[in-house]
Amino acid sequence: MATNITFIGAGNMASAIIGGLIDSGIAPDSITATSPTEDMLRPVSQRFGVNTQTDNNAAICNADVVVLAVKPQIMRDVCEAMQETVLQQRPLIVSIAAGLDAETINQWLGGGHAVVRCMPNTPSLVGYGASGLFANQAVTSEQRDTAAQMMEAVGIVEWVEDEALIDAVIAVSGSAPAYFFLMFEAMEEAAVKLGLPADTARRLAIQTALGAATMAQRSEDTPATLKQNVMSPGGTTERAIQHMEDAELRKTIADAMQACADRAQAMSKELSAG
Ligand SMILES: NC(=O)C1=CN([C@@H]2O[C@H](COP(=O)(O)OP(=O)(O)OC[C@H]3O[C@@H](n4cnc5c(N)ncnc54)[C@H](O)[C@@H]3O)[C@@H](O)[C@H]2O)C=CC1
Ligand SMILES: O=C(O)[C@@H]1CCC=N1
């Protein structure tokens, strides 16, 4: 990918994408990351060897792609301060912010921009990212390919043609690594109560998740069938699953994902009005 990419913001999510891009063979000197101070940039500079800049406008001068990776609450100020340079350069804008629609970003940058709204997740760092992408009407097919190539370098990409569905993507993948980490915490705690050492429990739980995910990915069977295959009638798994169903785990998950999507919508209203 012969493209200069500038990340505005060098925090958790930008670092995850940058790390994944470099692992996939992208040259570090084609990537620039920004933050307000050198101190904040030291981790990405030392870990990945990318260019760093504390001045956002200087950082985007030669960028083909500008990835907006700051917190949604400061996005307006950050965009407005870059408006003039972006209007001159017309790079492809990729916003990874939750709860900010493409048109709001476009307006904050002065209007008429090609904006791809992307919802990535932190496993991008290890090449197992899952990103949902939406392109506004100004995005050319070449720019669509560029955005897809960038995110495919760190995982899988799913396009949505209705931007509202990005909120569902946040619920199912953007925020979802945290759901699985919570599951690991809970399984480790429970296994310790059953007598296993914590590190043994953690290794077993994580390897089991990796195995289950890999099976689900490779198999033609549905997750429901794969689950059934583990459940011997009258056996141990059946008892565990029955307990989860009785405790309405499915409803808890559905409610949590709805709360996640609702929060994205509420943020969108708060931030685009403010
Ligand atoms: N953390 C996650 O799992 C995911 C985060 N996102 C989105 O990514 C964005 C960033 O989130 P995180 O990386 O988690 O936050 P973070 O707090 O780790 O990173 C934000 C970065 O912005 C920098 N920053 C602050 N002011 C700046 C300015 N004026 N100019 C340039 N950089 C500035 C900070 O120094 C920091 O490096 C958010 O909009 C979030 O919605 C999207 C998907 C997943
Ligand atoms: O929690 C958040 O708001 C961000 C967006 C998706 C994951 N982290």
Automatic annotation (TrEMBL):
It is found in: Cytoplasm. Keywords: Amino-acid biosynthesis, Cytoplasm, NADP, Oxidoreductase, Proline biosynthesis. It catalyses: L-proline + NADP(+) = (S)-1-pyrroline-5-carboxylate + NADPH + 2 H(+); L-proline + NAD(+) = (S)-1-pyrroline-5-carboxylate + NADH + 2 H(+). It is an enzyme of class 1 (oxidoreductase). One of its GO terms (cellular component) is cytoplasm. NADP(+) binds at I8, G9, A10, G11, N12, M13, A69, V70, K71, P72. SUPFAM superfamilies: 6-phosphogluconate dehydrogenase C-terminal domain-like, NAD(P)-binding Rossmann-fold domains. Catalyzes the reduction of 1-pyrroline-5-carboxylate (PCA) to L-proline. Residues 5-99 form the Pyrroline-5-carboxylate reductase catalytic N-terminal domain. Its main location: cytoplasm. Its EC number is 1.5.1.2. The keyword Amino-acid biosynthesis applies. This is Pyrroline-5-carboxylate reductase. GO terms for biological process: L-proline biosynthetic process.
